[in-house]
Design a protein that fits this description.
The protein is an alpha/beta fold and 461 residues long. The chain has 3 domains: 126 residues, Methylthiotransferase, N-terminal domain (Rossmann fold, 3-Layer(aba) Sandwich), CATH 3.40.50.12160; 236 residues, Alpha-Beta Horseshoe (pyruvate-formate lyase- activating enzyme); 68 residues, Beta Barrel (OB fold (Dihydrolipoamide Acetyltransferase, E2P)), CATH 2.40.50.140. The protein is 33% helix and 24% strand. It is built from 13 helices and 20 strands. A hairpin with a 2-residue loop joins strand 7 and strand 8. The termini are far apart. The relative contact order is 0.08.
């Protein structure tokens, strides 16, 4: 059995951006002689990379920390990393007294130093690596690639932090202002991913469309994409996540439409569609810009898939504002929609707004919005029946019948260009196809979130 003193256990929570941070810490730990294990009992260092974005995420993170605290032995060190640590700092120890170390999002690169200090300490007081709010992540990456590979796909972080003033969001307080990574570093990492056989690079940041602003690069995301397609012309898919309304430029649209490997997919969280609600949110309130820009994108890319998210129950949201949002959803015919009920976030400007909406009303509006979107998503999926699409195979599962009973038949779980990992649907293909490969399939059926298919040239069973 490996020596427990040389082992760490990492439990990662939250979004893809957190996944990249967790992977970066893992690289540093392993570079300094530690190895990861899947059983916390076999590790001397226990790390929870927390999420603190909304209340449900905070509860999940605290639960994970407390679960490990309950089984921790005196010769183990429990560390809280990530967003919850950055936001609550030393106060986190009051909620989980067994914590030995707390490290914030802006100091992930100090994880090895924290472990060393814990092992060398003579007294059991917790050790903190927490910069104040004036400090940012900066560019000290210790030579670590800011990527997270998952199967044949990889998240590539192009920036960290956010300078947007959204009233409901604690991310600027957690992450600091936006810091773009040097384009040559991003291009280098894309080449390394290509050489490793990665088939899809997913560009992520708190706001990808703000990339390069701090570097003085005009239309930075479009410029970066041009460099990437030139550097890795054999990377089949490049996907953009987390765009910001008002910053999808004509040049960005042109670059996306001009390069086949940039998939015609955009994730652009809009949050609402009524001007007054958007103004209270401190979000871009020009809804006509949204309509015009999406129309321009669909003209340039007729097969464009758009994912967005909305918040219902934001303080002061009236019936009229909600009805405007519902009409907008019906008008725009988005492919994918996520909906969140407003989460009260202490310390954000929205926490002080009057007219907080009751939970029952929020839940009802959530139900109404998603019930309205589901037939739209179904219709968008049905439009692909009969077409042939290239899909990226991610794995396999046993098929079930209408009563959820296993049939003994194997199906392949794949994604089309319309499906981002983890948040969108699957293309369910008959038969066992090679994992990590692109396969042309013919779409034979559609559901609200998923498509059904057979390998191209094969008749449906």
């Amino acid at each position: 059995m490996p020596n427990r003193q040389d082992a760490y256990y990492m439990h990662n929570l939250g979004c893809a951006k957190n996944t990249v941070d967790a992977r970066s810490m893992i690289v540093l730990l392993e570079r300094h002689g530690l190895h990861g294990v899947g059983d916390p009992a076999q590790a001397s260092v226990l790390i929870v990379n927390t999420c603190g974005f909304i209340d449900s995420a905070r509860r999940e993170s605290l639960g994970a920390l407390r679960d490990l605290a309950a089984i921790k032995t005196p010769d183990q060190y429990l560390i809280a990393a990530g967003c919850l640590s950055q936001r609550y700092g030393a106060d986190l120890v009051h909620q989980v007294p067994e914590l030995d170390g707390v490290i914030g999002t802006r100091r992930w690169m100090d994880i090895v130093d924290l472990v060393r200090r814990l092992r060398a300490r003579k007294h059991p007081e917790p050790i903190y690596h927490l910069p104040d709010e004036a400090q940012t992540v900066g560019t000290d990456e210790r030579g670590v690639s800011r990527v997270a590979v998952q199967g044949a796909s990889a998240y590539l972080k192009i920036a960290d932090g956010c300078r947007r003033p959204c009233a409901f969001c604690a991310i600027p307080a957690i992450k600091g202002t936006a810091i773009s990574r040097p384009p040559d570093r991003i291009v280098h990492e894309a080449r390394l991913l290509r050489d490793q056989g990665v088939q899809e690079v997913i560009l992520i940041a708190q706001d990808t469309t703000d990339y390069g602003h701090d570097l003085g690069i005009k239309d930075g995301l479009a410029a970066l994409l041009e460099q990437l397609v030139a550097a890795v012309p054999d990377m089949p898919w490049i996907r953009i996540m987390y765009a910001y309304p008002g910053y999808v430029t004509e040049r960005l649209i042109d670059v996306m439409a001009s390069h086949e490997q940039i998939v015609p997919y955009l994730d652009i969280p809009l949050q609402h569609a009524h001007r007054d609600a958007l103004l209270r949110m401190r979000r871009p309130a020009n809804v006509e810009w949204v309509r015009d820009t999406i129309a321009a994108m669909r003209t340039a890319m007729p097969d464009l898939a758009i994912r967005t998210t909305f918040i219902v129950g934001y303080p002061g949201e009236t019936d009229e504002e909600f009805e405007t949002l519902m009409q907008f959803v019906e008008d725009m015919q988005f492919d994918r929609v996520g909906c969140f009920t407003y989460s009260y976030e202490p310390g954000t400007p929205s926490a002080d707004l009057p007219d907080q909406v009751g939970e029952a009303v929020m839940l009802h509006r959530h139900h109404v919005l998603m019930s309205t979107q589901q037939p739209i998503s179904l219709a968008r999926n049905q439009a692909f029946v009969g077409r042939t699409l290239d899909v990226l195979v991610e794995g396999h599962a046993e098929a079930v019948d209408g009563d959820d009973r296993p049939t003994g038949e194997i199906i392949s779980l794949a994604r089309s260009y319309r499906d981002a990992p983890e948040i969108d649907g699957y293309v369910l293909v008959e038969g066992e196809l090679p994992t990590g490969a692109f396969v042309p399939v013919r779409i034979t059926g559609a559901m609200v979130y998923d498509l059904l298919a057979v390998p191209d040239g094969q008749r449906s069973g």
